[in-house]
Design a protein that fits this description.
The chain is mainly α. Helix content is about 40%, strand content about 5%. Helix 3 crosses helix 6, helix 5 crosses helix 6 and helix 7 crosses helix 10.
Length: about 240
């Protein structure tokens, strides 16, 4: 239960998280199952695809800076007794009816209903479980090598099928199908400059261009993971 002295801070908190989400292309459906703790948790994948570009959150390994840091936004409220259900309700409300742009983030706001239905429930439950929790960190990702974790941390599985990563996103191309015929240079270009050459059938789909900001080591690890695992049907050793 919230302590009375913390209630006056709620309007500030509501405003500070009013930018929850991003303007990135949608990567989800409305048929997701309730949140659970495995890497395949739909809430985490949706958060990375929809929210991580603009918001920092340790458990999601997201590094967005256009919107509020959700750990910083919710940590003080957790300290004074705000529970997960209350945080879930706040997140849900902000997605449905975003607050006007915060003065600290001029000119930036999010569209209403960036996720809906069961997807909204999963995203809200995910954020409520981990935002502002001390020591929260990303789960271990399926797949071999450090590149598998880079793939997971950046929410690639929300938009792409890759058997090795146990991902089943459908907005973007099936990586098991397209990557085996690509050169390393082509894979790198597809990551850092996704608009340069779009696969057939995906001309109207925009992949976020934030991956060009990956640290060089992580970019190399991601490319190696993709090239060594795509087309393996999850059977690589």
């Amino acid at each position: 239960m919230l302590k009375i002295k913390s209630l006056h801070k709620l309007p500030v908190l509501l405003a500070s998280i009013g930018l929850l989400g991003v303007l990135a292309a949608g990567c989800g459906t409305n048929t997701s199952a309730p949140i659970h703790d495995s890497f395949q948790d739909r809430g985490r994948q949706l958060f990375n695809a929809k929210c991580g570009t603009c918001h920092k959150m340790a458990q999601a390994a997201s590094t967005g800076t256009q919107g509020p840091d959700l750990d910083a936004a919710f940590a003080p409220s957790r300290e004074v007794g705000m529970d997960d259900d209350t945080i879930k309700g706040i997140v849900r409300a902000q997605v449905i009816r975003p607050q006007p742009s915060n003065p600290n983030f001029p000119g930036i706001s999010m569209p209403a209903n960036i996720v809906t239905g069961n997807d909204l429930e999963d995203v809200a439950a995910y954020a409520a479980k981990y935002a502002g929790v001390p020591g929260a960190k990303p789960p271990r990702a399926p797949g071999r090598g450090p590149g598998a974790q880079v793939f997971a941390n950046n929410g690639c599985g929300s938009c792409h099928v890759l058997a090795e990563a146990q991902s089943a996103g459908t907005l973007g191309p099936d990586l098991d199908e397209v990557i085996p015929s690509m050169s390393r240079a082509e894979v790198e270009e597809a990551i850092v400059d996704p608009g340069a050459s779009k696969p057939k059938g995906y001309e109207n789909v925009d992949m976020p261009d934030r991956f060009g900001n990956l640290p060089p080591e992580q970019l190399d690890q991601l490319i190696e993971f993709l090239m060594s695992s795509a087309g393996s049907d999850g059977q690589s050793s």
